[in-house]
Amino acid sequence: MTSGPGRERQAPAFGAEHPAAHGELHPARESISATVTVAGAYAAVEQALRIGPDRLIALAYLGASTTEDGRFDAILTTRGWRRWLRLPARIEFRRTPREAHAVVHLSWRARWRPHLFPVMEANIGLRPVSESRTELVFTGEYRPPGGLVGLVADRLAGGRLALSTAEAFLEDLGAAIEKDLGERPGMTPPIEPNRQQA
Q1: Whole-structure pTM value
Q2: Does residue 186 have a pLDDT over 80?
Q3: I need a labelling partner for 117 at 20 to 30 A (CA). Which of 68, 156, 158, 181 fits?
């Protein structure tokens, strides 16, 4: 899988109904984008995302569980050597209309002391790369915890951690999609290039 991240600053734009209006979160938003290319035809990847997010989460995260309201509890990690950093999170998936650019909308919030961690809202869209490869596109915004301390911490480290968590999540989701497609009848696992038989 290949990936490409990005991050940019967004101006405050929240309605009165948003938690930020009640002092729970700082009203600033930070944008995050990342991509991962997976082995799988566009239609098959779209079907896996729309129909089976519960299965994908189970494949991506050992010990993940489903809550009574249909959300998922999982342990998210950061990317690269920092995978040791773990965030117990509650993830919610929502399907989007078929005419929308995104396939699913998701959000996650820390389960342990959520006021200390960013809240993520994101869309996952798809782009065909070839007949057998599809790009997952993560486009999201996270809201830093409230107060001056939270804003400063986000500038120093939080933004990098949020981006790394999003990248790791997308990589884990991509690997779960490939595994899911490989286990379906009539589907074969992708052939890895440059591998020689003994």
Answers
A1: 0.73
A2: no
A3: 68
